[in-house]
């Protein structure tokens, strides 16, 4: 076999191992800052370790797990070369699916695939993940950065994450706890969050708007608005469950929290329907809130039909709490005192068939044969 005049190395194939090591050095302090007493070991192990003995007081613990990404929002971050916010988006999309079950997220891992490892860029992304984990009270116990030359361009990347949480079996939230007459509480979103960016990007491209464009209605540039991080609701939801317990003194569903719905892909009605029992309908009153300016802008620039907006974007509501009517006002006040704009959104009623002919009626969403939801009236 003849000797190759120009030997092929891993580096010549486009993979820079040393750059990956430098990225770890830049991010490790931010990661360590999320570690509490349950985390075993430090950064750089083959696997993240968590000491479950810190949870020894649980009687019948259930583990909850979730995984997600942030979709095409990464294209906005890449276009603007701003990468320190996308990590918070990732955390929000994962941990707030876990808290919907009543579980407390314990730890998270992340994954970054990129065409070329730029240590500073990777470290910015992971710092954002760490900041998001801190907001959620969740440990970042590990992750992976993969360099994929030839598959992704040098400045392209995608992110994904997974988290695990824990909930006492008799405090698990689900449709079985929801009752007719329960009240729906809206928690405001911070903007578009991380769903629907394929629609949003298409609209701004068709309109010919640049991300650097200053938009008076937004009070900042379009790019700054579109990169606003996803609000993380975990701490607020856990606080509500502590203030208004899921169970009464008899151990049965009490006069407190009945459930939560994280408003992500599919919009408000579809995600609400998933957490309601068969035979009930969530009646959502559009007149209780004003759609934030960014959503109106997308609607007007693209001539997007309202029904399409509602099936794609959160339109200003990022999380919904379902509560016993006796605590509804107190729960709204508590959320607002925490700095989270919240309001009574509607109620849960028996689905007697009178709403099923409404074009805004949704039932059986996301493969769940559960309840239904319908949006009524007009926005402010």
TrEMBL record:
This protein's pathway: Purine metabolism; IMP biosynthesis via de novo pathway; 5-amino-1-(5-phospho-D-ribosyl)imidazole from N(2)-formyl-N(1)-(5-phospho-D-ribosyl)glycinamide: step 2/2
Annotated EC: 6.3.3.1
ATP-binding listed as a keyword: yes
PurM-like C-terminal domain: residues covered: 179-353
GO molecular function, one term: phosphoribosylamine-glycine ligase activity
Main location: cytoplasm
SUPFAM superfamilies xrefs: PurM C-terminal domain-like, PurM N-terminal domain-like
Pfam families linked: AIRS, AIRS_C
Protein name per Swiss-Prot or TrEMBL: Phosphoribosylformylglycinamidine cyclo-ligase
The organism of origin for this protein: Rothia amarae
